[in-house]
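Notes taken during the Thursday session

The instructor put the following on the board and asked us to keep it in front of us for the whole hour. The protein is Lipopolysaccharide biosynthesis protein. We were told not to look anything up and to reason only from what is written here. First, the residues (399 in total):
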Amino acid sequence: MNATQEQSPLPEEEEINLLELLQVVARRKSVIIKICTAAVIIAVCYSLTLKNIYSASAKILPPQKESGGGLSALLSQAGGLASLAGGMGGLGGSTDLYLGILKSRSVADSVIKRLSLQKEFEAKSIDETRKKLEGAVKFKAGKDGIISIDAESRDPQKAAQLANTFVAELGRRSVELNLSKAGAERVFLEKRLEVVKQDLRNAENDMKAFQEKYKTFKVDSQATVAIEGIARLKAEIITKEGQLATLRNSMTDESSEVKALQAGIARLKGQLGSMSGSGGNDVIPAVGNIPGLGVEYVRKMRELKTQEAIFEQLTKQYEVAKISEAKDSSSVQVLDEAVAPLKKSKPRRSMIVILAAVTAFFASIFLVFIQEYLSKLSPEDAVIIRDIKNSLRFRPHDR
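Then, after some discussion, the predicted structure tokens were revealed:
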């Protein structure tokens, strides 16, 4: 190659002319029309083979927590430990909780069994049936807390039945969970009450034996106030220790609520120590300030009053647990039952045809531009293209 050829400038890039592009489209319009027509015909035939799908929707409102009256009033009278039990009892009004129950395997299996869905879905296993059921039913919660259950089926009656069955299973399952929790609390309190009753009986017998032995001994009014105050403090400490044990099941010792309860318990124990010790400047006289038989009497009276206070707290809590067990407080409220729809929800056949036509149009435009480019190849480029085609062909001797 000589210097003149090396220094010759490269040809300038040709600008894209829109009129030339339109000319290509117009010249090859028959190809575009044929491709679009074929795509539309295929899309129409395909959409007609699809079976109609119907959607039914049910709306439910999860149970809300009681804000006052009835059980809440009794809880407020029952004291701290009973109030805590009332707050923990029942499933509450959490929308996310009920969505979790709806999506649980146990609820899905109950619906599959009730409606014989494995046979209807023609599934080989229960796992396959669950997957198909998951695709047929959707759950969603609105900002207002209302849960929607949307079910799809080829049969409008089946779609409504499927949604309503999920509603029924949710109500049944939530009641079972609530009653199971309330029943466990009641059984625990029954056992605890038996122990407290025996402790109270022992304290009463000790007091009776002491009074019979020393012929009705009685201390002054200040000591009586001290005894009652100590009993109340012990009952309150037991209450807060129960709350602390409950919180530790779901929180760490670093949480603010646990720390606040620990500080409260420490403060109460400090007060109890000052009342039960031998201080000399207390407004209420300490036990150590009462001489002779009065000390023994105060100790026995204090134990009796303490057991009475604990028994009273547990009795109130036990009554609350029985009410919670008997009350169906977790039944969901059905706002709208699912009804058989009159119109299909899908397939949207017109949309399928439109999308197929638009896609075919752009694909055909791309194709005619490629055809136009290939028709204007130089002989050298045509040889290269032919060589590429030959290289890509599969030959038996290439094995």
